[in-house]
């Protein structure tokens, strides 16, 4: 009803302007028309998806040619508060592409060799097992290290017992040093939170700066992303959406694990579109210049490295390139998704259309990846 009222009001304003002979600014008219076309695409895909899965709510952000649009659905909290562009959500494994961007920055700066033994960058006093000595930082970034998804010696019990306060950085790094690959390296594709977590410690050792310091200095501050955090402030906590388990129950907050660089961040749709715009190669984001070194690192992180087992899509540094078919009107899009016990998320880049899409849903098992890709591929060029 509220949306209809807004549309009706807009129509009346435009009609009055036409009757009185006052010209509507062309840029305003274009913006209104663009948003209407984008909304038609987003609503047409999101509404059936949300209804089919009976999901509590979602936020969709779309960046098109440098303009950002936001489309909220359902409720962000059990009290019925709506999603906004500044609602914080758990982005899970979308965190990984921040980490591989930091890795790419270190590669381009000559601080780390992506194809030498990971042992060279292990924290002091930790030595990899002989079978892992051939493992490289790049193999950790593209999931060919053979490392399992999570450490294999995690404590039993509630999820919070696996948080960094109980399973510490020291515990994690000792486990990594004791681990041995089961196959010769590079191993076949195997998704790994632990591998990206270890990569972050290697990069920190190589650069002399920890992951959080590099994240803030090299990505978040230049791109004006103030709401992207491992541990939200009290003010930000008030803006957190409520997560739900796959059966609709209350989800506990996602812990900060010792391998947090693989999945610990919270963010907002507004922040994630800033990140998306920079990944599209925009020279400015939110009115601020994007450092050329960051643009180059993002480009490197997106570059395909090998073809995935499905024989079509290509793995990059955490990013996946989903090949299109120009004869069918589709082009390659680049994406990364994430999931926690209470949220599902995805960020999709479409360089051909100069567009980025971010979706977060506050229920696990929702996997918005297919609808994110579908929205990107149906956006007007």
Describe this structure in words.
It is a single chain. This protein has about 375 residues and is α+β, with helices and mostly antiparallel strands. Helices cover about 35% and strands about 15% of the residues. The protein contains 11 helices and 12 strands. The chain has helices at about 1-20, 25-55, 95-110, 135-140, 170-180, 195-205, 210-220, 235, 270-280, 290-300, 370-380; strands spanning about 55-65, 65-75, 90, 265, 285, 290, 305, 315, 320, 335-340, 345-350, 355-360. Strands 2-1-12-11-10-9-8-7 form an 8-stranded antiparallel sheet, sandwiched between helices. The chain has a two-stranded antiparallel ribbon with strand order 3-4. Helix 2 runs antiparallel to helix 11, helix 3 (about 95-110) packs parallel to helix 6 and helix 3 (about 95-110) packs across helix 10 (about 290-300). The longest helix is centred in the first third of the chain and has 28 residues, at about 25-55. The radius of gyration is 22 Å and the shape is globular. Mean pLDDT is about 90; it is low at about 1-30.
Largest sheet: 8 strands, antiparallel
Shape: globular
Number of strands: 12
Uncertain regions spanning at least 5 consecutive residues: 1-29
The CATH architecture would be 3-Layer(aba) Sandwich
CATH class: Alpha Beta
Count of all domains:
1
Spell out the helices and strands N to C.
Answer: HHEEEHHHHHHEHEEHEEEEEEH
CATH topology: Beta-lactamase
The radius of gyration computed from the alpha-carbon positions, rounded to a whole number of angstroms, is 22 Å
Average of the residue pLDDT scores: 92
SS-derived structural category = alpha+beta
Reading side by side through the largest sheet, how are the strands ordered? 2-1-12-11-10-9-8-7
Proportion of residues in β-strands: 5-15%
The total of helices stands at 11
CATH superfamily: DD-peptidase/beta-lactamase superfamily
